[in-house]
């Protein structure tokens, strides 16, 4: 793996500016006994070298905090992650700050802001990061843990997920065992690592059972309700419509249910649906949703504890942890109707 970028020091900036370390320190501390020209030069070089002040060794006053950051709106999935992180934080005596920031906004200045705010670590959930963003956090001395990342940067990062492939395999095998042969997959972003694993599990189950994945039976979007409506409509309007659909998330599954009802299809009498996540909404749908349980609260807790270990300088056993998934059978799946077999 490439070596971590070396943190710029006051001496580095001073040498570039041709001034003393004391002069650079005065500029950083806002002292007035520095000429405007020298001040401007030093400030420019501080930005150029991406200088970050060292984190104080002693604990700042008040409760230490870890930031849990999301790329998009909060939903039932996000709530489960947050609850797991908050519970683990309470046990460790650490506060949790929840924020939302798009990937393009994450720069060196963003890393500095997190350090200046007293964050001990950052947990990024379903985020898409460039290789430069983990590097900026590393220079700032701030540990990073990813949960269900949409991509894995080339630099080594620590990530927490679940057994997505096994979950996709179990969901599809369940539908095949009910006699369904025309099974479609409506999932999340095509490039997302978790979505790829679920899709590979689906394809592996179909191939093992000798069931063909017909043209148009695989759709990608975002793990959201609206994408489930659109993706569900697309596969249900095919000339040979599926009798069962495996959805990449519970939200998508509910969207597919709506698309089915709009076409006069009953669930599960005419169409079986399996979701993924087992959030609270899976239990309150009509009928209740068969889904793959992803241990979201446990993932939030493991991420928090891992982040604190990294912040304390401890070594961790693995840079990627996968927690087990489990199929939860409810009322949205049934044997294939003879009229649609």
Automatic annotation (TrEMBL):
GO molecular function terms noted in the UniProt entry: DNA-binding transcription factor activity; transcription cis-regulatory region binding
UniProt KW Transcription keyword: yes
Coiled coil: none
Keyword DNA-binding: yes
InterPro entries (alphabetical): HTH_LacI, LacI/GalR-like_sensor, Lambda_DNA-bd_dom_sf, Peripla_BP_I
A Pfam match: LacI
Entry keywords, A to Z: DNA-binding, Transcription, Transcription regulation
Spans through the membrane: none
Annotated ranges, domain HTH lacI-type: 8-65
PROSITE patterns for this protein: HTH_LACI_2
Name of the protein in its database record: LacI family transcriptional regulator
Organism of derivation: Nonomuraea solani
């Amino acid at each position: 793996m490439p070596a971590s970028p070396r943190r710029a020091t006051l001496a580095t900036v001073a040498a570039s500016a041709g001034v003393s370390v004391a002069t650079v320190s005065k500029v950083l501390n806002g002292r007035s006994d520095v000429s405007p020209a020298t001040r401007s030069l030093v400030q420019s070089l501080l930005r150029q070298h991406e200088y970050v002040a060292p984190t104080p060794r002693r604990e700042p006053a008040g409760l230490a905090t870890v930031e849990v950051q999301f790329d998009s709106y909060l939903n039932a999935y996000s709530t489960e992650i947050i609850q797991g992180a908050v519970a683990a934080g309470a046990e460790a005596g650490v506060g949790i700050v929840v924020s939302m920031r798009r990937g393009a906004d994450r720069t060196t200045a963003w890393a500095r802001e997190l350090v200046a705010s007293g964050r001990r670590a950052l947990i990024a959930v379903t985020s898409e990061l460039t290789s430069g963003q983990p590097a900026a956090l590393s220079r700032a001395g701030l540990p990073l843990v990813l949960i269900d990342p949409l991509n894995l940067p080339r630099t080594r990062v620590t990530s927490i997920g679940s057994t997505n492939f096994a979950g996709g395999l179990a969901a599809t095998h369940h539908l095949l065992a009910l006699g369904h042969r025309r099974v479609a997959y409506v999932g999340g972003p095509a490039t997302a690592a978790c979505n790829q694993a679920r899709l590979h599990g689906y394809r592996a189950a179909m191939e093992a059972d000798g069931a063909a994945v017909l043209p148009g039976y695989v759709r990608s979007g975002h793990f959201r309700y609206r994408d489930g409506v659109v993706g569900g409509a697309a596969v249900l309007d095919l000339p040979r419509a599926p009798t069962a659909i495996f959805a990449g998330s519970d939200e998508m599954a509910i969207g597919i249910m709506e698309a089915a009802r709009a076409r006069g299809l009953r669930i599960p009498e005419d169409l079986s649906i399996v979701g993924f996540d087992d959030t609270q909404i899976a239990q309150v749908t009509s009928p209740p949703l068969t889904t793959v349980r992803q241990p979201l609260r446990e993932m939030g807790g493991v991420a928090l504890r891992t982040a604190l270990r990294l912040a304390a300088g401890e070594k961790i056993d693995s840079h990627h942890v996968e927690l087990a998934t489990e199929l939860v059978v409810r009322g949205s799946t049934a044997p294939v109707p003879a009229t649609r077999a």
